[in-house]
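User: For my dataset I need records formatted as: sequence, then C-alpha coordinates, nothing else. Please produce one.
Assistant:
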Amino acid sequence: MTTPANGAHERAVIMTDIVLSAPRAGDRSEWARLWRAYLDFYDTSLPEAAYDAAFAQVTSDDPSAFRGRIARRDGAALGLVHWVWHPHMWRPEGTVYLQDLFVAPEARGTGLGRRLIEAVYADADARGAPAVYWLTRADNPARALYDRVATRTDFVKYAR
Protein backbone atom coordinates (compact mmCIF):
# COMPACT_ATOMS: atom_id res chain seq x y z
CA MET A 1 0.00 0.00 0.00
CA THR A 2 1.30 3.45 -0.83
CA THR A 3 0.55 6.69 0.96
CA PRO A 4 -0.01 9.66 -1.37
CA ALA A 5 0.98 13.17 -0.29
CA ASN A 6 -2.58 13.92 0.87
CA GLY A 7 -2.38 11.09 3.43
CA ALA A 8 -5.07 8.93 1.80
CA HIS A 9 -4.28 5.27 1.23
CA GLU A 10 -4.63 3.53 -2.09
CA ARG A 11 -4.18 -0.14 -2.87
CA ALA A 12 -1.03 -0.74 -4.88
CA VAL A 13 -1.40 -4.53 -5.17
CA ILE A 14 -3.73 -5.98 -7.80
CA MET A 15 -5.39 -9.20 -6.66
CA THR A 16 -4.27 -11.94 -9.01
CA ASP A 17 -5.27 -14.87 -6.79
CA ILE A 18 -9.01 -14.32 -7.12
CA VAL A 19 -11.22 -17.28 -8.04
CA LEU A 20 -14.56 -16.60 -9.73
CA SER A 21 -17.20 -19.31 -9.58
CA ALA A 22 -20.90 -19.71 -10.21
CA PRO A 23 -22.91 -19.75 -6.97
CA ARG A 24 -23.73 -23.23 -5.67
CA ALA A 25 -26.27 -24.38 -3.08
CA GLY A 26 -23.68 -24.25 -0.28
CA ASP A 27 -22.84 -20.61 -1.07
CA ARG A 28 -26.24 -19.25 0.04
CA SER A 29 -25.10 -17.52 3.25
CA GLU A 30 -21.98 -15.90 1.73
CA TRP A 31 -23.92 -14.85 -1.36
CA ALA A 32 -26.74 -13.38 0.79
CA ARG A 33 -24.22 -11.42 2.89
CA LEU A 34 -22.71 -9.85 -0.24
CA TRP A 35 -26.06 -9.20 -1.93
CA ARG A 36 -27.45 -7.64 1.27
CA ALA A 37 -24.47 -5.25 1.37
CA TYR A 38 -25.09 -4.39 -2.30
CA LEU A 39 -28.77 -3.70 -1.62
CA ASP A 40 -27.81 -1.58 1.42
CA PHE A 41 -25.78 0.67 -0.91
CA TYR A 42 -29.00 1.29 -2.87
CA ASP A 43 -31.02 1.83 0.35
CA THR A 44 -33.04 -1.29 -0.40
CA SER A 45 -34.13 -4.15 1.79
CA LEU A 46 -36.04 -7.19 0.63
CA PRO A 47 -37.97 -9.95 2.38
CA GLU A 48 -36.30 -13.35 2.75
CA ALA A 49 -38.54 -14.74 -0.01
CA ALA A 50 -36.84 -12.37 -2.48
CA TYR A 51 -33.44 -13.75 -1.44
CA ASP A 52 -34.73 -17.28 -1.98
CA ALA A 53 -36.07 -16.42 -5.44
CA ALA A 54 -32.90 -14.57 -6.47
CA PHE A 55 -30.62 -17.36 -5.28
CA ALA A 56 -32.76 -19.90 -7.14
CA GLN A 57 -32.24 -17.82 -10.31
CA VAL A 58 -28.45 -17.59 -10.06
CA THR A 59 -28.11 -21.30 -9.25
CA SER A 60 -30.52 -22.43 -11.99
CA ASP A 61 -29.43 -24.32 -15.10
CA ASP A 62 -32.06 -22.44 -17.13
CA PRO A 63 -30.17 -20.40 -19.78
CA SER A 64 -32.80 -17.64 -19.57
CA ALA A 65 -32.33 -17.22 -15.80
CA PHE A 66 -29.92 -14.81 -14.18
CA ARG A 67 -26.32 -15.93 -13.98
CA GLY A 68 -23.85 -15.00 -11.31
CA ARG A 69 -20.31 -15.24 -10.05
CA ILE A 70 -18.88 -15.02 -6.57
CA ALA A 71 -15.28 -13.80 -6.25
CA ARG A 72 -13.14 -15.39 -3.55
CA ARG A 73 -9.63 -14.87 -2.29
CA ASP A 74 -8.22 -17.47 0.10
CA GLY A 75 -11.75 -18.85 0.41
CA ALA A 76 -13.27 -15.53 1.53
CA ALA A 77 -16.17 -14.22 -0.57
CA LEU A 78 -15.29 -10.63 -1.58
CA GLY A 79 -17.62 -9.80 -4.46
CA LEU A 80 -20.45 -10.84 -6.70
CA VAL A 81 -22.03 -10.08 -10.04
CA HIS A 82 -25.42 -11.00 -11.56
CA TRP A 83 -26.47 -10.67 -15.19
CA VAL A 84 -29.09 -11.88 -17.62
CA TRP A 85 -29.25 -12.28 -21.39
CA HIS A 86 -32.44 -11.02 -22.99
CA PRO A 87 -33.85 -10.51 -26.48
CA HIS A 88 -33.57 -7.07 -28.03
CA MET A 89 -35.53 -5.65 -30.95
CA TRP A 90 -32.50 -3.87 -32.44
CA ARG A 91 -30.01 -6.71 -31.87
CA PRO A 92 -31.06 -10.12 -33.20
CA GLU A 93 -28.30 -11.71 -31.11
CA GLY A 94 -29.80 -10.26 -27.91
CA THR A 95 -28.04 -8.28 -25.22
CA VAL A 96 -26.81 -8.74 -21.66
CA TYR A 97 -27.94 -6.69 -18.69
CA LEU A 98 -25.51 -6.55 -15.77
CA GLN A 99 -27.87 -6.02 -12.86
CA ASP A 100 -25.80 -6.31 -9.67
CA LEU A 101 -22.10 -5.77 -9.04
CA PHE A 102 -20.64 -5.59 -5.55
CA VAL A 103 -17.11 -5.62 -4.17
CA ALA A 104 -16.53 -5.72 -0.41
CA PRO A 105 -14.91 -2.52 0.91
CA GLU A 106 -11.66 -4.28 1.79
CA ALA A 107 -11.24 -5.44 -1.84
CA ARG A 108 -12.08 -2.20 -3.64
CA GLY A 109 -9.40 -0.70 -5.84
CA THR A 110 -7.71 -4.06 -6.37
CA GLY A 111 -9.03 -5.00 -9.82
CA LEU A 112 -11.76 -7.26 -8.47
CA GLY A 113 -14.62 -5.19 -9.91
CA ARG A 114 -12.97 -5.26 -13.34
CA ARG A 115 -12.57 -9.05 -13.12
CA LEU A 116 -16.28 -9.44 -12.33
CA ILE A 117 -17.30 -7.20 -15.25
CA GLU A 118 -14.94 -9.11 -17.55
CA ALA A 119 -16.68 -12.35 -16.52
CA VAL A 120 -19.96 -10.87 -17.74
CA TYR A 121 -18.30 -9.70 -20.97
CA ALA A 122 -16.92 -13.22 -21.52
CA ASP A 123 -20.35 -14.80 -21.08
CA ALA A 124 -21.92 -12.26 -23.43
CA ASP A 125 -19.23 -13.00 -26.04
CA ALA A 126 -19.79 -16.75 -25.66
CA ARG A 127 -23.50 -16.21 -26.32
CA GLY A 128 -22.75 -14.08 -29.39
CA ALA A 129 -24.22 -11.00 -27.69
CA PRO A 130 -21.53 -8.28 -27.86
CA ALA A 131 -23.62 -5.63 -26.07
CA VAL A 132 -23.59 -5.42 -22.26
CA TYR A 133 -25.23 -2.60 -20.33
CA TRP A 134 -25.98 -1.59 -16.76
CA LEU A 135 -27.41 1.22 -14.66
CA THR A 136 -25.98 2.89 -11.60
CA ARG A 137 -26.52 5.93 -9.41
CA ALA A 138 -24.87 9.16 -10.51
CA ASP A 139 -22.96 9.34 -7.21
CA ASN A 140 -21.59 5.78 -7.31
CA PRO A 141 -17.79 5.92 -6.78
CA ALA A 142 -17.46 2.79 -8.94
CA ARG A 143 -18.18 4.99 -11.97
CA ALA A 144 -14.43 5.64 -12.17
CA LEU A 145 -14.04 1.95 -13.06
CA TYR A 146 -17.09 1.94 -15.31
CA ASP A 147 -15.66 4.86 -17.29
CA ARG A 148 -12.56 2.74 -17.99
CA VAL A 149 -14.32 -0.48 -19.04
CA ALA A 150 -17.41 0.84 -20.85
CA THR A 151 -18.89 3.85 -22.61
CA ARG A 152 -21.38 6.02 -20.75
CA THR A 153 -24.52 6.67 -22.79
CA ASP A 154 -26.88 9.62 -22.84
CA PHE A 155 -29.95 7.57 -21.96
CA VAL A 156 -32.08 8.60 -18.99
CA LYS A 157 -33.98 6.05 -16.95
CA TYR A 158 -37.69 6.46 -16.19
CA ALA A 159 -39.58 4.23 -13.79
CA ARG A 160 -43.15 3.66 -12.81
